[in-house]
Amino acid sequence: MIRRPPRSTLSSSSAASDVYKRQVSTQSTGELATLKNDQHELLLRAVEARLLVDNQSATKSELEQKTSASRSGVFVAGGGVCVQDGALQHLKATKNQKLNEVAELERMLANLNHQSAQLDNEIQHFEVETNTITSQAEDCHAERERNQAHVAILKSSVSDALRSV
Asked: What does the CA dihedral 68, 71, 73, 79 come to, rounded to 10 degrees?
């Protein structure tokens, strides 16, 4: 609650007026602190925005430099494209560099295709081995069942022979 000086004491030197001034001063200090925080936040946002703009400007200027460098010595005249000697040499060098990169990529692709073919052969070999092992396992299982049946017959025969004795 804000205390106000009485209406009867309108002079600025009264004690009631001093209390009122101190209250206003305290209230102003709180508002000032809030204002400073708001200004600080606005300043931070302004700095961030400026950094973004500077970064975009730098990126844009780098792009413009690269574009202008690639276009220097190339111009349109008389319905055709004219290329100066220095620019032509630069374009030829760039073309050769790109052709070398393409050749390297083609070598890498051929190598990968060769490795893929080798892996396919190994997979086929493992499939043949797996089928052979599976067939042998099935044969062993069938032989085991035959042996178990034979053992059962022998046990039965021995048991019959012992009873008859």
From this structure: -130
